Amino acid sequence: MEQEIKVAVYGATGYTGVELINILLKHPRVKIVGLTSQSHTGKKIGDVFPFFEECLGDLTLTQDVEEEYDLAFLCMPHEQSLELVPRLLNQGKKVIDLSGAYRIKNPKIYSEYYGFEHGYPDILEKAVYGLPEIYRGLIKSAQLVANPGCYPTSVLLALYPLLKEKIKIEKVVITSLSGISGAGRKPVQHFHFPEMFGDFFAYSLHKHRHVPEMESVIKEVGQLDISLRFSPVVVPASRGMLSILSIFCEKIEPVELYIETYRCERFVKIASEPPHVKHVLGTNMCLLYPLWDPRTNCLQVISVIDNLGKGASSQAVQNFNIMMGFEEGMALNTIPNFP
After folding, report:
1. Catalytically annotated residue among 55, 75, 150, 264
2. In this predicted model, what pLDDT tens digit does every residue of 190-214 receive, in sequence order?
3. Which of 18, 114, 149, 235 has the most CB atoms at less than 10 Å from its CB?
């Protein structure tokens, strides 16, 4: 009989939680035994989301998980994950944390960018950054995987071929467009339909918490100290992400480099034309389009992902598969929801 892994999802009623449950229900080696929710405690998951009623039966949303399980997915605010992770690790659980609480090794970053003091530097040091295309070997034996943010996933996969080959980079300018779901499910006035419809705007231009996350990986992988110029933009779509990177570097022929770097990767492909967000919605795919511009001596890379997929929940399942020794693509879509 094949091994069955019992899992719990903390924060099951947010966007990443719902997306994660939907993927896990298709996984032949997973049994969901616990779901938590602060906003819907005591309700059955099928009463909150009728589309789960048949699959999850009478599973009730609780404050904590009482059933025994092997691995926890944390789809919670950063501060809540910060305190929950040490308790779960002490209980011998494996953890995949979709928050930003354990992504950056330097604990001093958190007070400046996240607004809280990080009191667990020893756990930070042991956490593995969950970008499989870069850290697959470490993920295999990890007890705690810090699932990357959506913006960093799209940007770092676009930069990795250059970092891997130690290409000299002078500066990187990034504009990333994200669907509204990236802001979470909690109601916010400027994401209210009458205000968001037909609108799009930049935000957090002076200080965005994903910048030190990206810069730390760039330094670790490429031995480069680069200050990114990052401009995030919200667009009136529910999901999806497109990042445009202008990379000022030594002259290269990028297409061959990118194809060779990702030749054996199932979920990163090099597009022959600038890809659309709809080409990846509902999948774990990242599509990249590199272009060298000789007029400006600039490499431009277009990167598209589903912010709830490769940018969050499906990447968490990819990490789960690696940690458990399963086939990496188990339960993960590569064909988008189109149109």
Report:
1. 150
2. 788 888 899 999 999 999 999 999 9
3. 149
